[in-house]
Design goal:
Blueprint (H helix, E strand, L loop, with lengths): L13 E4 L20 E3 L7 E6 L3 E6 L4 E5 L15 E2 L9 E7 L2 E6 L4 E4 L5 E3 L5 E7 L3 E8 L2 E9 L14 E7 L1 H10 L3 E7 L2 E6 L4 E6 L18 E2 L6 E2 L7 E6 L3 E6 L3 E5 L7 E3 L7 E7 L2 E6 L4 E3 L10 E3 L4 E4 L9 E5 L5 E5 L1
Antiparallel strand pairs: 1-2, 1-30, 3-4, 4-5, 5-6, 7-8, 8-9, 9-10, 11-12, 12-13, 13-14, 15-16, 16-17, 17-18, 17-19, 20-21, 21-22, 22-23, 24-25, 25-26, 26-28, 27-28, 29-30
């Protein structure tokens, strides 16, 4: 265990672990997934408001609405000024204020403060997505995109892109391709009927999870690792998919009102009012509950690849597996959880953890 804090931190400090390409300036090596948490300095020492990881890449929204990126030298090389450290994306620098950004492998989606959506169309170009109104939320998968768009007094979910898998139901229809933005009618009709609006949406590799303002969680799309809360043995027609697009799954087996969730390539972790639940990792079970040592209160959940993360009210971070390279994590056998040493983060409280694949990003309060 560490004997003292490793660094001083401030609100919006950014940390990374799990992938040796992020923020380290090194080439791909055998220990690429065996790195402990380090602090990453954004360009101009700006504080991070949002951090999202792709496959060997990171995208960050700063406190002043700037967009910065870093990551693999082999992907989107021309878009990075220095691949090993975060730098501003020139197309947005000083021109627009960024509200949110998402990416999945080589696909980037950006939402500005005035509700305009941009997407990557080449290694050096971003283009405006033609949508029928101002957008409030976005989500990017690997070459698929979603946006919540306000049209008059209504909000509707739009989707577009090309999926990775034949017969994918990522757009709630039996078509793997939707080149231009179109309504996701099944979801829009369902939410109109129930009087709910979209609070959060996430997509990773054609797996889609949506949370409403009334605590309802819907899942559809790719269920390869049973990360949509559905046992793979219960699926029909194609084993890996929640294939019936007319019936997105409401995770009623939680029997709890959902507050938040986090989705990675192989994990879904759900934060309810009365507990926390998770699924994935090729299991054949529905969501299972998890609790903190000493009945601690969970403030925030996160996920990356095969890990879920639980942040308690004191800022302690717990995970279901040891982080790569750390051999001395405190283990709680009853809860089957590991505690990550808080001193890696300068003894300050972490407010969010993001990571779709092997990269993990954490931001401090």
């Amino acid at each position: 265990m560490l004997s003292k804090c490793l660094r001083n931190t401030f609100s919006g400090s950014l940390f990374s672990w799990g992938n040796n390409l992020i923020g380290r300036g090194t080439e791909l090596s055998a220990d690429v997934f065996a790195t402990l948490p380090i602090k990453i300095a954004l360009s101009n020492n700006l504080a991070a408001r949002k951090a999202t990881s792709g496959f060997g890449q990171g995208i960050f929204v700063t406190e002043n609405g700037e967009l910065q990126l870093c990551g693999s030298k082999n992907i989107w090389t021309d878009m990075w000024l220095k691949p090993e450290t975060p730098n501003s994306l020139a197309v947005f620098k000083g021109e627009v204020k960024v509200k949110d950004a998402d990416l999945d492998q080589s696909h980037i989606l950006v939402l500005t403060e005035d509700g305009v959506v941009y997407q990557s169309i080449s290694k050096t170009q971003m283009s405006i997505v033609e949508l029928p109104g101002s957008s409030r939320l976005i989500a990017a998968g690997n070459n698929v995109s979603f946006a919540v768009v306000k049209i008059g007094k209504e909000e509707k979910l739009f989707g577009w892109g090309v999926t990775n898998f034949e017969n994918s139901s990522v757009f709630c229809q039996h078509y793997p391709e939707q080149k231009s933005p179109s309504e996701v009618f099944v979801i829009n009709q369902l939410l109109k009927k129930t009087g709910e609006s979209i609070k959060k949406i996430a997509v990773v590799d054609d797996s889609v999870v949506l949370l409403t303002d009334k605590g309802t969680l819907l899942t559809w799309g790719n269920n390869t690792s049973a990360c949509l809360g559905v046992p793979r043995s219960e699926l029909s027609l194609i084993e890996n998919y929640v294939y019936e697009p007319s019936n997105p799954l409401k995770l009623a087996n939680i029997n709890d009102s959902v507050i938040d969730f986090a989705l990675s390539q192989n994990i879904l972790v759900v934060q309810g009012k009365n507990g926390v639940y998770w699924c994935g990792l090729e299991n054949r079970f529905s969501l299972r509950s998890v609790s903190l040592p000493d009945n601690g209160k969970i403030d925030k959940v996160g996920a990356s690849h095969n890990h879920f993360y639980l942040i308690d009210s004191n800022g302690k971070i717990f995970t279901n597996q040891p982080i790569p390279g750390e051999k001395d994590l405190k283990f709680y056998g009853k809860e089957n959880l590991y505690e990550i040493d808080q001193r890696y983060f300068g003894c300050s409280k972490i407010k969010s953890i993001e990571g779709k694949y092997h990269n993990v990003f954490a931001i401090s309060n």
